[in-house]
Amino acid sequence: MVGYLKALVRGLIENGKDPKVAAQLIVDKYGADFGLELAQQIRQNELGQPLIQAAGAPGPFWFDPAVVQTTIAAIAKSAGITTMPPTQQIVDLGPLEEALAAIK
Asked: Which residues of 83-92 are buried (b: 16+ CB within 10 A; e: fewer)?
């Protein structure tokens, strides 16, 4: 899992440095049959960056586990789920933490 996360995070960091590179690959190679427009793909990639890494986070995909007992609990409650397990039973950022440490 850590190896996968390291590779994924490295790719996201590189993508963030120049969103045009991935967009060009999508338009010219992987999505060549879909009639994609380069400018739109670049913009979509740029707009997606803040969704992958929050400001102040140590790396991509990091989140505050407290969100489980606040935001996620409220969503669960609206779906009829009245009890939430303790956060530490459902969230383990350890593998991500290890991957991020190995990259830096």
From this structure: eeeeeeeebe
**pLDDT tens per residue, the chain (104 residues)?**
999 999 999 999 999 999 999 999 999 999 999 999 999 999 999 999 989 988 889 999 999 998 888 899 899 999 999 888 899 999 999 999 999 999 97
Residue type at position 26: I
In a domain, 54, yes or no: yes
Q: Is residue 74 part of a domain?
A: no
Indicate the helix (H) or strand (E) that contains 74.
Answer: helix 71-78
The residues, any chain, with a CB within 8 Å of residue 2's CB and separated by 6 or more, are: 95, 98, 99, 102
Domain assignment of residue 75, yes or no: no
In which domain, by residue range, is 21 found?
2-62+92-103
Q: How far is CA 101 from the centre of its chain?
A: 17
